[in-house]
Amino acid sequence: QSALTQPASVSGSPGQSITISCTGTSSDVGGNNYVSWYQQHPGKAPKLMIYDVSNRPSGVSTRFSGSKSGNTASLTISGLQAEDEANYYCSSYTTSSSVFGGGTKLTVL
Amino acid sequence: QVQLVQSGAEVKKPGASVKVSCKASSYTFTSYGISWVRQAPGQGLEWMGWISAYNGNTNYAQKLQGRVTMTTDTSTSTAYMELRSLSSDDTAVYYCARTNRLRWNWFDPWGQGTLVTVSS
Predict the structure, then answer these.
(1) What single string gives the DSSP state of each residue in B12-81?
(2) Fewest CB within 10 angstroms: A30, A70, B24, B39, which?
(3) Which residue of B has its CA nearest to A35?
C-alpha cells in the first residue's frame, strides 16, 4: 500500500488559516469515511486531532476541522497559534491495513 | 485518564528478536483494540498491525507478515508486540495506540514510544 500524499511543508502567520491536503486513491481515502489526522511535536508521541474525516475528539480545539472530497482529505487550522507548529500526518483505513501520509511540517511564522 | 505505558528502550543485534509491552489503564481493555505504529529516525509513521483485545483477532502489515506477532494479556490489560529477525531497517521508535475494537480506523491515545536500536 503506497503512502498517502501530503505537502512536505506549509506555513502561516498567527491568526491566519491554513489547509493541509492528503491525497490517496479510491482504495483508501476515497473508499470510506475513515480518515484521521495526527499532530506530532518533536520528540513526542502523535496526538489524534480528527477522526472519521471530520469528527473532533473531546478536548481538541474547534480551530481544527477536517473534510474530504473524492480521494483527497483536508485538515484546516483556523486562527493559527504558535503552539500549532508541529508535524501533521493523515491516515486512512483500508480493509487490509492502515496507511499514513508522509507528513507535513507546519511552520507558524 | 486513559493511558498507555510502554516498556523501556532496547538495543538488539541483527537477527535477534524484540518484545515490547504496552500496559493500558483507565478504560475497559477488552472494549478496544491496540495498533502498533513505528517511526524510523527522522521519518514518518508506519502502521505495523492491529489486535482486537475484544476477540483476539489480528491483522498485520503485509511487509511484516511472518516476522511480527501481536498478543494481549487481558488479565493485566497489557498488549505485546514481538518482532523477529531484526535488521538495521527496524531501528525505530515503536508506539502502541488504542484503537477501535473492530477496525483500525483511529489511534487514540498513544503510548510514549519505545526506541528499538538494531546494531552490531
Answers:
(1) E-TT--EEEEEEEESS-GGGSEEEEEEE-TT--EEEEEEEETTT--EEE-GGGTTTEEEEEETTTTEEEE
(2) A70
(3) B105
Does residue B37 contact residue B45 with C-beta atoms inside 8 Å? yes
Q: Which residue of B has its CA nearest to A104?
A: B44
Q: Which three cell numbers stand for residue B25?
A: 489503564
pLDDT at B65: 94
* Tens digit of each residue's pLDDT (9 = 90 or more) over A39-62: 999 999 999 999 999 999 999 999
Distance from CA of A99 to the nearest CA of B (A): 7
Mean local confidence (pLDDT), A17-33: 96
pLDDT at B101: 86
Q: Which residues on chain A are in Cβ contact (under 8 Å) with B45?
A: 38, 46, 89, 91, 100, 103
**Nearest-by-Cβ selection for A97 from B47, B95, B111:** B47
